[in-house]
Write a structure and sequence with these properties.
Blueprint (H helix, E strand, L loop, with lengths): L9 H35 L1 E5 L14 E5 L4 E3 L6 E4 L8 E5 L6 E9 L3 E5 L2 E4 L2 E2 L8 E2 L4 E2 L11 E5 L4 E5 L9 H4 L2 E2 L5 E9 L3 E6 L1
Antiparallel strand pairs: 1-2, 2-15, 3-4, 5-6, 5-15, 6-13, 7-8, 7-12, 8-9, 10-11, 13-14, 15-16
């Protein structure tokens, strides 16, 4: 006849519960604080963006993962648009992340014109305030500190003639001019509504981790 297995000691169960409660008191609160800080940092300091389409080719490819500097245009209260302090204004040539004024979808495009600019876009090529941004048809567009190589394989998309950008607004376009739903379709983007500036690609499908500055 086999002896019955004795039930677990309530004293041991109580000791395990006491150890668990002690661990939670020592480690649980710091872990919660750490997670909270990481969440705040992601919402107000830095984030990443997964490129869903080819509208920014050849600068960005579908599947690219991009580091976004959320402080570039000012520091905001987490999860709000309330500015703690103002940073630099978006500049021509910046690659930025924002929500589409048409449907709220988060997009990544290039700022090509800012408040006060006069824009002409013909066959995908920009002229800002009367000055073409490229000196020949196959040359990159020159935004000063940034040169943008375009993809015109699908044509240039809709033209713009004599468009004036209002103060406090920006015009954004994709570098793949003929395959980009951008400011030509949904209009201007308020500069204050831009989340951050894309700084570089840290992951590219097929190549893995690396750094490609934008």
């Amino acid at each position: 006849m086999t002896a019955a297995t004795p039930p677990p000691s309530p004293w041991r169960a109580g000791q395990r519960g006491a150890r668990l409660r002690g661990w939670l008191r020592r480690e649980g609160l710091p872990l919660v604080c750490l997670l909270g800080l990481l969440l705040v940092a992601r919402s107000s300091l830095a984030n990443h963006y997964h490129v869903p389409s080819g509208s920014m080719e050849p600068t960005l490819l579908p599947g690219d993962r991009v580091v976004v500097d959320m402080r570039a245009y000012g520091l905001r209260v987490p999860f709000t648009q309330w500015a703690v302090w103002d940073g630099d204004a978006p500049a021509r040539g910046d690659v930025v992340v924002f929500r589409s004024p048409a449907d709220g979808i988060r997009l990544i495009k290039r700022v090509v014109a800012v408040g006060g600019d006069r824009v002409d876009l013909v066959d995908g090529r920009l002229t800002i305030n009367g000055t073409p941004l490229a000196d020949r048809p196959d040359a990159p567009e020159d935004f000063g500190d940034v040169r943008a190589t375009l993809n015109l394989d699908a044509g240039g998309g809709p033209d713009l003639t004599g468009l004036h950008v209002p103060d406090g607004q920006v015009l954004v376009l994709g570098d793949h001019r003929g395959a980009s739903i951008d400011g030509r379709y949904f209009g201007f983007v308020p500069a204050a509504a831009i989340y951050g500036q894309a700084r570089g690609v840290f992951w590219r499908t097929g190549d893995g981790f690396g750094w490609r500055k934008l």
